[in-house]
Amino acid sequence: MRSPLGEFLRARREVTTVDQVGLQRVDDNSRTPGLRRDEVAMLAGVSTDYYMRLEQGRERHPSDQVIEALARALLLGSEATEHLHRLARERVPLRRPVDHPVPDLLRLVKAWDHGPAFIVNRRWDVLVRNPLSVAVCGWMEHSDNLLRLIFLNPESQEFFRKDWEQEARAYVAHVRALAGGNDEDPFLRELVDELTRSSEAFRRMWARHDVYARTQQYVHMHHRDAGDLAIRFEGFNVNSAPGQILVVGQAETGSRSEDALITLSRSLVDSR
Fold it and tell me: How far is CA 228 from CA 75, 132, 151, 164, 259, in A?
């Protein structure tokens, strides 16, 4: 029975190409997507049989040296490499996601008026958001969970019209990073199962096993009233509530996006 470690190795092998690792094949008729098992084994300096046992789940605890060699062979980044280390260790069940924001952060989010602000847990459930975040995207169906918003609401493709695929893959990769190798955690599994049943795009992206956390990024959106927006979001881990992330956004000073956010903010005041 294939293990989470084996699933990860197989997925990353299949999305890594011979060109990326500088290999040339005498036989270029291979139907294997990405690298073959023997090619990964050679690059990592292990036997093909040992690597096959890892993928098949018959070997589950490689040494740190082997993990580092596999990470180099598969061109893993630092976060994906740490994820690989976690998969090779005994996994500790995660606690139920904490659904109550820290009171001081709750007040901070509610008072933040420079741009959208919200707090999420590791499933990307939105626990609290400020009024400007509601004005930007809180009116959309499924906006209480950002993964559901992206994969279950067709409007999201118009909303993220410039780079929906990039946004979607980034959210999926971040969920894997937050799960820390515990993607069998029942609270996360429930959401993953729902999206797997309902979205072919999610199934495809989840199967890649991309792992990287979003810390800061410009997000390009098309708002139904405000038009095109470019907002820089930055996420901060909440140490007093592990698994929660405070996300704040702001537009570049003097930009059209900043003017649009100011207009949205004023409309909120006027509607009170």
Answer: 35, 16, 21, 14, 11
pTM for the whole thing?
A: 0.80
CA separation for the pair 212, 235 (Å, rounded): 13
Tokens for 234? 């930055």
φ, ψ at 125 (rounded to 5°): -70, 130
How buried is residue 196: exposed, middle or buried, by Cβ count under 10 Å (0-12/13-18/19+)? middle
Q: Contact 185/124 with Cβ under 8 angstroms?
A: no
Residue pointed to by tokens 């405070």: 246
Q: Which two tokens stand for residue 134?
A: 């509601």
> In angstroms, what CA-CA distances link 38 with 1, 12, 143?
20, 14, 45
pLDDT of residue 55: 92
Assess contact for 246 and 240: CB atoms under 8 A: no
Q: What is the pLDDT of residues 4-27, one digit of tens each?
A: 899 999 999 999 999 999 888 766
- Is there a contact between 147 and 171 (Cβ–Cβ < 8 Å)? yes
Number of Cβ atoms within 10 Å of the Cβ of 77: 12
> In whole angstroms, how far apart are CA 84 and each of 9, 62, 156, 252, 263?
9, 10, 32, 37, 46
- Distance, in Å, from the CA atom of 193 to the CA atom of 190, rounded to the nearest integer, reads 5
Kindly list the distances between the CA atom of residue 28 and the CA atoms of 3, 17, 25, 33, 34, in Å, as whole numbers in the listed order.
30, 12, 6, 12, 12
CA 191-193-187 angle, 5° bins:
40
CB 120 within 8 A of CB 128: no
Other C-beta atoms closer than 10 Å to the C-beta of 123 total 21
> Tokens standing for 47?
């036997």
